[in-house]
Design a protein that fits this description.
Elements lengths: L26 E9 L2 E9 L6 E4 L9 E2 L10 E5 L13 E11 L2 E15 L6 E2 L11 E10 L6 E2 L4 E2 L8 E3 L6 E3 L5 E2 L7 E2 L3 E2 L8 E2 L30
Parallel strand pairs: 4-11
Antiparallel strand pairs: 1-2, 3-5, 5-8, 6-7, 6-9, 9-10, 12-13, 14-15, 16-17
């Protein structure tokens, strides 16, 4: 950068108050003053400032990413500390405890945030980044997953990942995921609403056991078998229990 101050004559000192130094990477900046054929140079070692925020160094690799359930997110998010100008701290000078909180937001209700898993890593003082290699997501149809990274002692500004989608069965309205398996099964022909995940919504008037992949019509009707909200199984109404809520 070049900053020029012009005047025919002057007395005392000249102040350059708009001087900007290059981004810090432990480089040397040379300041050169010239006046009337005379010049002077000053060399400054430019270093990063104090840590003020967290950042995801490989955030571009996470844009548009999808993740299968139960498989660690790849590539793993790499967290760094930066100063107020965005310079990466090569050596934070102290260990920083960084937490990663995963959560999802439903497309139809973005105001509702649902927390899921939490992970903690130690950002060593002798390193300049920490990798979260064990982050996994659950299947949630119609939701965007995010990861929020925060720190304690010192408290730095947080960093949040781009939206990450979970992979689903093909034709999610016609299939659902088998529990603890990588296969998809056809949605039951009646009494159920599927969304490509393990959660099957059982309609009122139908019954499903906690470990049963089949759905049966309930002889007692909706007042005995109220259905379920999508979790495994379908509980009976108060006062009823057993298969088909028959007792």
């Amino acid at each position: 950068n070049e900053s020029t101050w012009c005047r025919d004559t002057f007395e005392g000192e000249v102040v350059f108050d708009d001087l900007h130094l290059p981004n810090a990477r432990a480089t040397t900046a040379v300041l050169r003053w010239e006046y009337g054929g005379w010049f002077a140079e000053t060399r400054l070692l430019v270093t990063e400032g104090a840590a003020v925020a967290l950042a995801i160094s490989n955030v571009r690799e996470l844009v548009g990413k999808t993740a299968p359930r139960g498989v660690a997110l790849s590539p793993a998010p790499e967290i760094i500390a930066v100063d107020e100008l965005g310079n990466i701290l090569q050596n934070p000078g102290t260990s920083i405890t960084i937490s990663a909180q995963t959560f999802y937001v439903m497309d139809e209700n973005p105001a509702e945030v649902v927390p899921t898993n939490r992970y903690v890593q130690l950002h060593r003082s002798e390193g300049n980044k920490v990798s979260f290699a064990t982050i996994v997501f659950q299947y949630v149809h119609g939701a965007a997953h995010y990861i929020n990274f925060t720190s304690d002692n010192p408290v730095l500004l947080p960093a949040t990942s781009p939206a990450i989608r979970t992979t689903l069965c093909e034709n999610p309205e016609r299939f659902y995921k088998l529990s603890n398996e990588s296969e998809c099964a056809p949605c039951p022909p009646e009494g159920a609403v599927c969304n490509g995940t393990e959660a099957i919504r059982v309609l009122p008037g139908f019954w499903r056991g906690a470990t049963d992949r089949f759905i049966y019509e309930c002889p007692g009707g909706p007042s005995v078998c109220p259905g379920s909200d999508g979790m495994r199984g379908a509980p009976c109404a108060d006062g009823y229990e057993g298969s088909l809520c028959s007792r």
